[in-house]
Write a structure and sequence with these properties.
Helix 2 packs across helix 3. The longest helix has about 35 residues. Helix content is about 90%, strand content about 0%. The protein has about 70 residues and is mainly alpha-helical.
Length: about 70
């Protein structure tokens, strides 16, 4: 078991991305491509908003969206 954990630590991103690929493939085959893509997009949006809330609360979310939609 220790060897497996060492492998995962050394190849963290490879392991994570392979798992994401496997989950996405299973979702595509079970619920179809567009639903799986929508699920992925909603999950990423929720993750980003959650990370912003963890970083600086509602003010950080407001700042992010103000910078995103700022007029030049």
């Amino acid at each position: 078991m220790e060897g497996f954990l060492d492998f995962c630590r050394r190849n963290k991103w490879k392991v994570i991305l392979v798992l994401v690929g496997v989950v996405f493939t299973i979702l595509v085959f079970t619920i179809n491509f567009w639903r799986a893509l929508l699920l992925l997009v909603v999950t990423v949006i929720c993750y980003v908003i959650g990370a912003l809330l963890d970083e600086g609360g509602r003010a950080r979310v407001s700042q992010f969206f103000n910078e995103l939609f700022k007029k030049n």
